[in-house]
TrEMBL record:
Top-level EC class as recorded in UniProt: oxidoreductase
Residues the entry annotates as binding 5-hydroxyisourate: F159, R176, Q220, N246
Pathway annotation: Purine metabolism; urate degradation; (S)-allantoin from urate: step 1/3
Chain sites annotated for binding urate: T58, D59, F159, R176, Q220, N246
Keyword Nucleus (UniProt): no
Name of the protein described by the UniProt record: Uricase
Source species, domain of life: Bacteria
Biological process terms in GO annotation: purine nucleobase metabolic process; urate catabolic process
Keyword terms of this UniProt record: Oxidoreductase, Purine metabolism
Amino acid sequence: MSEIVLGHNQYGKAENRVVRIYRDTPRHEIHDVNVSSCLRGDFSDAHLTGDQANVLTTDAQKQTAYSFAKEVGLEKIEDYALALARHYVGDVDAIDEARIEIDEYAWERVIVDGAEHDHTWVRKGQEVRTAAVTVNADGEWVVGGLKEFVILKSTGSEFAGFYKDKYTVLEPTHDRVMATSLTAQWRFTHTDGIDWDEVYAGIKVQLVKQFAVVQSKALQQTLYKMGKAVLEAYPVIAEVRLSAPNKHHFVYDLAPFGVENNKEVFHADDRPYGLIQTTVTRDDATPPGPAWDAYQGWLS
Ligand SMILES: O=c1[nH]c(=O)c2[nH]c(=O)[nH]c2[nH]1
């Protein structure tokens, strides 16, 4: 008979929706996040005997997330996440490792009578900025990123010369629409003295540029070039991971109506979609440790 044992476990408070307003001057600032805290450590008893003595409640984690929005501030999600993770590992004995995952929603000031308004914004829909921070006794890891970044080019994309079997019906193309909703994550080599906002903005520029300028032979090639450009431009990045659904745009058949369609009218298909995923790394990158050990998405 095999013995049944407790395996990896972790717990926390997922998706605290924290909004911090800075209102010390008439021109307010807003920071809007979805923050999840995840704790790893000596929690066997909670599972095996029901003894909760070591369990810092998920409710306390929620309270901490809100209080740290004031105590630490929320100007930089990476700094806020590091502060939370350091607090859990440093202050609670049972906790060996803390993982903080944050999505940040950007807001943009409305324009009233030609001027930016002091305290009214509209949601900026372009992408969600992400951060994932892990702290344990051996070190600290920060992974920055973005997701839901929808980007499309109307030409400059090919897909041809692929392997063919008896089910292959796809026609090769040297001129197609390429579109995706990009998720990108980048692992920092260290965590001190980094201008998180500058690196974020610069990496976004690199990702966009490669998507636009590369004469793409495949989404795979575009993703590789994106990751490579980020690593070339930013020595503080050790590794980039990219995940891109191929949002297929099919030329719509207008022939039944006697209407010519020279790649001018498309059906934007919803599903299924190719899902292309690529890691680009330095051959001498420091080991990732637990940098990629997810909380949200652990099973995916
Ligand atoms: O860029 C692409 N990569 C693929 O692997 C693939 N497969 C497919 O059918 N279309 C595409 N496009």
